[in-house]
Amino acid sequence: MIQQELKESVSIGRMNCAMSDLVETEKPLIEAVNVFKSYKIKDKSLDVLTGAGLVIQAGEILGIVGASGVGKSTLLHILGGLDRPQSGTILFKGKNIFAQKNGFLEGFRNKHIGFVFQMYNLLPDFTALENTMFPGWIGNKNEKDVREQAENLLEQMGLKDRLHHKPGELSGGEVQRVALARSLVNKPDLLLADEPTGNLDSNASDSFMDLMIQLNEKFNQTFVIVTHSQKIARRMGRVLQLVDGLVTPIDKDLIL
Predict the structure, then answer these.
(1) Domain 2-251 carries which CATH code?
(2) Which residues contact 131 (CB under 8 A, 6 or more apart)?
(3) Which residues contact 11 (CB under 8 A, 6 or more apart)?
(4) How does pLDDT run across 57-97, given as a tens digit for each residue?
(5) CA proximity to 6, closest of 163, 188, 131, 210
(6) 75 CA to centre of own chain
């Protein structure tokens, strides 16, 4: 049942944008153009992104690799509207997300973007079900519908018997699957995952990656995944690398 619901929701979402001021077009799902970002550290400026650009098509599963500290997480946060660049443009279906009216970004993130973080960021006093439902509550969605969607997602991820367990009562792999379910509960166009397997052992990492690939293949769910893992990177549909503040393609078959 959950597979059919998700498949139908993805199909509907591709025809009708969830926000009235973003109209479906033939343009890429996300496009970053000439993005600059730097940080002040004491009296020095650290240039992280120096004109980065990339294009993400709907239905892709895209990996981003690079050395630690080069700005992969910064780029991901800018793509999702969590952080602002000093200059440059982020286009979502052809619309500049940083040129919209005040309050736009909050609604944009809630309705169109799902986030999965390395450190999970679950609420420790909430159950798996409550954590999964949380984005729906923020979006003022119907309580019954949100609960049903959350329960179905958690069941699909093998957590049917763990709905009422809190994060401290779950394994690392289970916690990360709850975080994935939470990111999907509002049926986002794009899911951004920042080192989602970084704190998992090899078996849990493989299982979690299998789940994301299933979602991509069955429901056309778009993923951008930042990873240090060469094994994970080789499983992406396409891989980009971030070097010296710029994004360049890399042949995943050449990743050792």
Answers:
(1) 3.40.50.300
(2) 122, 123, 167, 178, 179, 182
(3) none
(4) 999 999 999 999 899 999 999 999 999 999 999 999 999 99
(5) 188
(6) 12
